[in-house]
Specification:
By secondary structure, the protein is mostly helical. It has one domain (about 1-125). It is built from five helices and no strands. The chain has helices spanning about 1-25, 30-35, 40-65, 70-95, 100-125. The mean pLDDT is about 85.
């Protein structure tokens, strides 16, 4: 359990500063006005991606303890499932023609969390070697 808390702390170590910077960028007048028309708020997206990332990393940690050889495949499958679920959540935004800033915002958050998950998963895989 303590080891799982370390991964959550590591995840928060990456996510919290990223969220603060993201919110500060959207304090700019032009972006702040665009943010008011967002379908999903930045905070909601961060919480949603944080839940998905925590779940994925928890699963990866458990799989690496039981069957280390399957860790990479589980990461790929879990990330694919997350991408599929997120597609259905953000589908109204993707179909919208008028809010390019929100599309870029979601893309940035998605890529950031994917990068964070990949870094933490790589650390899990490197500890076993």
């Amino acid at each position: 359990m303590k080891n799982n808390l370390l991964f959550f702390k590591e995840l928060l170590f990456f996510v919290f500063p990223l969220y603060i910077i993201h919110k500060l960028v959207f304090l700019l007048p032009d972006l702040n006005a665009a943010q008011e028309n967002f379908y999903l708020s930045i905070a909601f997206l961060y919480v949603l991606f944080l839940i998905f990332s925590k779940t994925i990393l928890f699963i990866i940690k458990k799989v690496s303890e039981k069957s280390f050889d399957n860790t990479g495949m589980v990461f790929m499958i879990a990330t694919s499932v997350k991408t599929g679920i997120m597609y259905f959540i953000i589908k109204p935004i993707l179909n919208s023609q008028n809010n390019q800033i929100e599309k870029l915002n979601i893309f940035f958050i998605f890529i950031s969390f994917l990068l964070i998950e990949t870094i933490i998963t790589a650390r899990i895989l490197n500890k076993k070697q």
